[in-house]
Amino acid sequence: MIIRIMGEGQYRAPEALCDELNQIDNRIVDLVEEGKAEEFQSELAKLISEIKKKGEPIEAEEITESDIIVPPEDLSLEEARDVFKGSGIFKD
What we know:
This protein is α+β, with helices and mostly antiparallel strands. The protein has helices spanning about 15-35, 35-55, 75-85; strands at about 1-5, 10, 55-60, 70. A hairpin with a 3-residue loop joins β1 and β2. The mean pLDDT is about 95.
C-alpha cells in the first residue's frame, strides 16, 4: 500500500503495518468525535511517526499514485472532523 503524508512524501507500507495504522486511525476517529484535541494531536503524531519509522520511503522522482493520504501533523481538530469520520482514512 502506498501512503502519502501531505507535505512530506510517500511511503510503501506492508499489510501488517496497515493493520496497526488502522487501529490508530480508529482511535483518532473516536477522539475527534469526542472533541479531545490534545489526545487527537498525539495520536495523529503517532500515526505519522509509525509510517515514517516502519514504511519504506519512496523517492520523489518515482511517480506513484497514493492509496491513502494522511493529513499533516498540524491538522486542527475542526479540520479533522472532515477527514477522520466513519471508518477513518484506513478502511476497515
